[in-house]
Design a protein that fits this description.
Blueprint (H helix, E strand, L loop, with lengths): L2 E4 L1 H8 L3 H12 L3 E5 H7 L7 H8 L3 E4 L3 H14 L4 H13 L2 E4 L2 H7 L5 E3 L1
Parallel strand pairs: 1-2, 1-4, 2-3, 4-5
Helix pairs in contact: 1-3, 5-6
């Protein structure tokens, strides 16, 4: 595993100071791992950057990759949704990002992600 990818639930847990997420981030940093945040997941949770200091700080860190939904990824997301018979663009984008970076996904909703990316390691918070 080269790091961790956050879905919206994982970001919400960080925003709420969830101890397990804080420990995961600390361990990832100690090991020099990358943190991936799909911009679609960030968009689901970011409401007031001034009051969401942990999220704002995380996306500015040197070891954090904020991944936009560009044309090629949008196509991959659409194909993945068609293949799995699902409809959540954000979940599919999270799976695409985690597969590409070979990372585990930090989530609070493993069921949907298991349908889309059953081979991926999930860390449920």
């Amino acid at each position: 595993m080269s790091g961790i990818t956050f879905d919206a639930g994982g970001l919400i847990a960080l925003d709420r100071n969830h101890r397990r997420v804080l420990v995961l981030l600390a361990r990832a940093r100690e090991r020099g791992m990358r943190i991936t945040i799909p911009a679609t997941a960030l968009a689901q949770v970011m409401r007031n950057p001034a009051k969401q200091a942990r999220l704002s700080r995380l996306i500015r860190q040197m070891d954090t990759d904020l991944i936009s939904l560009d044309g090629p990824d949008a196509t991959s997301v659409g194909l993945l949704l068609a293949r799995t018979g699902t409809a959540d663009i954000v979940d599919a984008h999270v799976v695409i990002c985690a597969r590409r970076s070979k990372q585990a996904i930090v989530t609070s909703d493993a069921e949907d992600l298991r349908r889309i990316g059953p081979e991926l390691r999930l860390v449920v918070v």
